[in-house]
Amino acid sequence: MNKIPDDAEARRAVKPVICYPVETLPQPDMALLQRAASGAQVAGQVMVPPREAASIRVPAGHVLRISSVDGPQVGDLNLFAADNLDERFYSGKTRALHGTHVTTGDRLWSSFPYLRPMATVVADTLGWYGIDEFGGSVHDVIGTRCDPYTGRLLSGVDYHHCCHSNLTRALADAADLPLHDAERHVHDVLNVFMCTGFTRDTGQYFMKASPVRPGDHLDLFAEIDLLAVLSACPGGDCSAEHSSDTAACYPLLMEVLAPQPSDLDGWTPPAVNAYDRTHGR
After folding, report:
1. For the whole model, what pTM was predicted?
2. Are 257 and 33 in contact (CB under 8 A)?
3. Which of 46, 99, 153, 189 has the fewest C-beta atoms lying within 10 Å of its C-beta?
4. Where are the domains of the chain?
5. Pick from 270, 229, 243, 276: nearest CA to 76
6. Cβ contact 145:164 at 8 Å
């Protein structure tokens, strides 16, 4: 056992410092984006079956709407630049900039060396939830996705309809890739509708029943051409367990909404990050 130092309380009392102050972070023109979204019409859709995944392409300047339809269900979302699978959603940097959960006005950032906004949240019908008494909130960027490797490690069972495997199969189909090649592109997710946090006593990642109900939706304005891949998690509303066929599961709807061209006047897609990539050499 380590001896508790005499100044332990003073060390604990040091005030925290925000790692990435966002006062200088480029801000989206939310009035323009929300005006464009409000006049948008459905241009395409796909239903994601329970315990499966599906993909849809979202042109820059369009809106991806993810909706609950038949019952409470969470989804694991991967985003890629439509013409470059190496540029993909970076949940860790999104978390560092916006916090553990995202809502209206937050942006989903892409991986290095691109580091630009891929999408902006323009509507969130669960924005009312906030942070509950357990520290839980909705739409997290802290969970990694349920996967067969952790499932095998903890239970000794191979389960093939966890989100990682679902995303792998759907991406392989969308990009015409062998499974093993597709798998290396699957990445940490935006947990759409999932209610999560960290326990205050042990710091463990927890989930609880999602507040999502049929009719709830999350709208993402595509800042660049996107390939979206979504898994309807085998955990259902994540009130009990995932990586099994135990939970009641429901489909999720992905729709692409096309704004009126005039509503996008003044908007331009973001350029890739301007860092010169010399890394001090």
Report:
1. 0.96
2. no
3. 153
4. 43-58+69-222+236-261
5. 229
6. yes
**How far is it, in rounded angstroms, from Cα 3 to Cα 11?**
14
pLDDT per position as a tens digit, 76-97: 999 999 999 999 999 999 999 9
Strand partners, 190: 77
Amino acid (1-letter code) at residue 155: S
Cα–Cα distance between 106 and 101 in angstroms, integer?
9
Beta strand 107-109 pairing with 117-124 = antiparallel
pLDDT given at position 241: 84
CA atoms within 13 A on the CB side of 122: 28
At residue 242 the predicted structure's pLDDT band, cuts being 50, 70 and 90, is: confident
Who contacts 203 (Cβ-Cβ below 8 Å, separation ≥6)? none
Mean pLDDT computed over 243-257:
95
* pLDDT per position as a tens digit, 10-68: 999 999 999 999 999 999 999 999 999 999 999 999 999 999 999 999 999 999 999 99
Strands of the sheet containing 107-109, edge to edge, are 41-48, 252-258, 63-68, 217-222, 117-124, 107-109
